[in-house]
Specification:
This protein is an alpha/beta fold and 288 residues long. The chain contains nine helices and twelve strands. The protein has an eight-stranded parallel β-barrel. Strands 5-6 form a two-stranded antiparallel ribbon. Strands 10-11 form a two-stranded antiparallel ribbon. 35% of the residues are buried.
Length: 288
Amino acid sequence: MNNKVYPVHGAGLGLRRTMVRALADQPDNTVDFWEIAPENWIGVGGFYGKKLRTFTEQYPFICHGLSLSIGGPTPLDEAFLHRLKRFLKTHQIRCYSEHLSYCSDDGHLYDLMPIPFTEEAVHYVAGRIKRVQDILNQRIAMENVSYYAAPGKKMEEIDFLNAVMEEADCDLLLDVNNIYVNSVNHDYDAEVFLRQLPAHRIRYIHIAGHYNEAEDLIVDTHGADVIDPVWMLLEKTYQRFGVIPTLLERDFNIPSLQELEKEVNHIHYIQTKCRQQLLTDENNLQHA
């Protein structure tokens, strides 16, 4: 069994402002934890600021950043990091994660750009992650991202990801949908990729829907329901690493909270199923 202590447990959901009133009206939902992008909430007052404060006192929260630009060419925004540190403390945020990509140069690019898979980039990015962890005085988790081109590639994606985490000594936000998307777009075996990840670094999991542009091109949109092959890959992830807290992302085409809960409950279902199977396997081993 997986006895690792995680920052949250169960099945979570990304909170968007369009959900705030529904959540206030439906406090007894089946969501175990919530995730927000701190950039969308830092400094927010009034109705939404008060509601966020109420929610973070009521539910476990984690943060998934949008603007750190860890692989970017410009210096880290340390002023933002100090504001972030205060925000994380104020709202008792359980974990902070970001994308292993970059999104800015002399301004924000409004997209997640791929970092070249090179040894030089490993050292550069790892140094910046260390600096972020020093300022925040906590470990952070980096997310494996979807990408559509690999400029300057000299390493495989899995080797680059593992090298960054090892040198920076940071954690992993494991995005199962991104593994599936990249496996189709770049023609590799998703399960082989999964097996090469370091179990001890995984903090929690993302799962989401996407858009099929063509047979060999998937766009990671977070704007649709999760498909069966991704659910199956999530189950294989649990079989490999144990049951890990998992969050459903939905960024647009957002249905009602009740509809989103159906997918959250499907995460619960897979978690229960895998937990029972792992217990059965453990008992069989003990009595073999």
